[in-house]
Design a protein that fits this description.
Layout lengths: L6 E10 L2 E6 L8 H11 L5 E7 L3 E8 L2 E6 L9 H10 L13 E2 L11 H8 L6 H12 L2 H8 L5
Antiparallel strand pairs: 1-2, 1-3, 3-4, 4-5, 5-6
């Protein structure tokens, strides 16, 4: 089975005409950070776009593009041992491979959504909640940014 079959969802969120929009990102655009950022640039408005990819109920990747800038957050560095997308995030960030596969820590820019209202300290607290699955974390992120219902509808979650 290919890794693409294990992707729970891949979405792009962006503001258009003052309102959040959410749309699916098709395979193979979510195969790597480079391809994902390229796809996001095609839908981004003036404030850029946020890509949200959840894989196998295991981890997620957030990619934020604005102009020529790409910012990345990987929810769990240990995912790089099994998943090409996670390894692509580690490579993009210029980090070494994880040494301890039992230490599940995020990597990247915790403040990539800070200007949208979700600051690094809040992102860190959310990522520390070991009881939440990636889709639940991303739903919370979407809610805090103002497109929670659109996100939940797109991935089939019931809004809380």
């Amino acid at each position: 089975m290919s890794e693409h079959a294990e992707v729970d969802f891949a979405l792009a969120a962006f503001v258009e005409d003052g309102a959040w929009q959410v749309q699916d990102i098709a395979s193979p655009a979510f195969a790597s950070i480079d391809s994902l950022s390229h796809a996001l640039r095609h839908v981004s408005g003036r404030s850029g776009a946020v890509g949200m990819v959840a894989v196998d109920e295991d981890f997620f990747v957030l990619v934020r593009v604005a102009g020529s800038t790409t910012r990345v957050l990987l929810s769990d560095v240990t995912a790089a041992d099994e998943w090409e997308l996670a390894q692509s995030a580690i490579d993009f960030l210029g980090l070494p491979p994880p040494e301890d596969e039992d230490v599940e820590v995020p990597a990247g820019d915790l403040d990539l959504l800070g200007d949208l209202g979700l600051h690094a300290i809040d992102m860190g607290a959310l990522l520390d909640d070991v009881e939440l699955y990636p889709d639940e974390m991303l739903s919370d992120i979407a809610r805090r940014l103002g497109f929670g219902k659109l996100f939940d509808d797109a991935v089939g979650l019931t809004s809380a």
